[in-house]
Design a protein that fits this description.
The chain has 423 residues and is an alpha+beta fold. The chain is built from 13 helices and 23 strands. A 6-stranded antiparallel β-sheet has the order 12-15-18-23-20-19. The protein starts with a strand and ends in a 6-residue tail after the last helix. The relative contact order is 0.14. The site of glycine (GLY) has 7 residues, from loops. Glycine binds next to loops.
């Protein structure tokens, strides 16, 4: 099978590495990729959002399967263009991707499917912002009502900070979504979905704030771990049965059945799981940890999803143990990151015993030096017999990487190790 992966982050690097482990995958291409992905796949400088160019590349490389990583090309209909060209694609249609692209659509689907989620209101007029804030909080949850790569969300007990963020979004012409705060630890559950067939992967937990102890602003994700020793198995079953299946069925009923990865982000509160958000693609950085434990051929699972035969393949098998992803971010991230610095210690190739270095925002200079090119620069994924060992694998490896001004959280998975998470 010849596979083309679309995207350029550590999530796509993890997908490429997992696909390489599938003996059925005979050729791997990526567009545009990054300096790390280029070590394992043939990379091509194609814009992921340019549907015609992606179709042309998939045709040129004779791809049997295209896997689209990021949400923006999905929301823009790149998967639809590939399907029209007769090329199997892992990723939903633009109509189904609205589950992430439009929070109002997602709320409507959840309401019709009877799924618990936060109460919300959309504000598009600055004159209505103060009254609307008074109907919520504390704690206030203020979101950009569109795609913002996680950085459009402010969760705060400070009304003036909530107001400032809402006013800033409105000034930029972005409608604001106010939500009631959902209490309880967060879970990311990724499900392969092909119409009404739903196959869950391992549950994971993201760490969205920039600083240790969940301090500082929200980011695109500073680290993740899987599995979740504090999450009862029956809660995963309940999420699949009471949340993901009803939403998948509702999308089919509306004529926009989902094909790809449906990501349920939930808070596990005293009344049970409630949805914080749905995404239409693999989550970043949770995917990097989840795929590190996958023991089944990834290409087969993705191809079956893309071709409507998911119900006929074996459910995924998992390696014992745990995996932890730690993100190395550039100076000043999640603000305007410092770019263009030389990175040392990332190593050649990806894997080194129990630790794998994945590239996110990297590029290679003409002289061959590895250079930072994004806010999240590298990820290190550690595996081990348990979370303590997986953390040790990741943190030992990341300590050997040098990038001026860079930072990473030192507490990824620590609350779980110390039994500080309660459902
Ligand atoms: N882990 C957050 C996201 O992928 O949106």
């Amino acid at each position: 099978m010849r596979v083309l992966v679309i995207g350029s982050g550590a999530r796509e690097h993890a997908l490429v590495l997992a696909l390489r482990r599938d003996p059925a995958v005979t050729a791997l291409f990526a567009a545009p990729g990054n300096a790390g992905i280029a070590q394992q796949a043939q990379v091509r400088p194609v814009d992921p959002c340019a549907a015609e160019d992606v179709v042309a590349l998939a045709t040129e490389v004779d791809a049997d399967l295209v896997v689209i990583g990021p949400e923006v090309p999905l929301v823009l209909g790149v998967a639809d263009a590939l399907r029209v060209a007769g090329i199997p694609c892992f990723g939903p249609s633009a109509a189904a991707a609205r589950i992430e692209g439009s929070k109002a659509f997602a709320k409507d689907v959840m309401s019709a499917a009877g799924v618990r989620t936060a109460h919300s209101e959309v504000v598009d007029n600055p004159a209505e912002l103060d009254d609307a804030l008074d109907r919520f909080g504390p704690t206030w949850v203020v979101k950009d009502d569109g795609l913002a790569a996680g950085k459009g969300v402010v969760v705060t007990a400070d009304r003036s900070a909530a107001r400032e963020h809402g006013a800033e979004l409105l000034e930029q012409g972005h409608p604001v979504l106010l939500e009631s705060f959902l209490d309880g630890p967060e879970v990311s559950l990724f499900c392969l979905v092909d119409g009404e067939t739903v196959v869950p992967l391992l549950p994971a937990q993201d760490h969205k704030r920039v600083g240790d102890g969940d301090t500082g602003p929200n980011t695109g994700g500073m680290g993740a771990y899987t599995p979740l020793p504090w999450l009862p198995e029956e809660t995963v079953t309940a999420i699949v049965e009471d949340v993901v299946r009803p939403v998948a069925a509702e999308l089919v009923r509306r004529g926009s059945g989902f094909s790809g990865l449906l990501y349920a982000g939930l808070a596990i509160g005293s009344a049970g799981p409630a949805v914080v958000e749905f995404n239409c693609r693999f989550g970043d950085p949770e995917t990097q940890a989840v795929l590190a434990l996958l023991d089944s051929p990834l290409g087969e699972l993705l191809y079956a999803t893309a071709t409507g035969t998911l119900a006929q393949v074996e459910p995924p098998r998992w390696r014992d143990g745990a995996a932890v992803t730690v993100v190395l971010a550039a100076e000043n991230y999640p603000g305007r990151p410092r770019l263009g610095d030389a990175i040392s210690g990332a190593g050649e190739g990806a894997s080194d015993g129990n630790a794998t270095v994945l590239h996110a925002g990297t590029t290679q200079r003409e002289d061959g030096a590895l250079i930072s090119a994004g806010g999240r620069v590298l990820n290190v994924v550690g595996v081990g017999a348990d979370l303590t060992e997986a953390r040790a694998s990741a943190y030992d490896r990341i300590a050997a990487i040098k990038l001026p001004g860079s930072h990473y959280r030192t507490d990824i998975g620590l609350a779980a190790v110390e039994n500080r998470i309660e459902v």
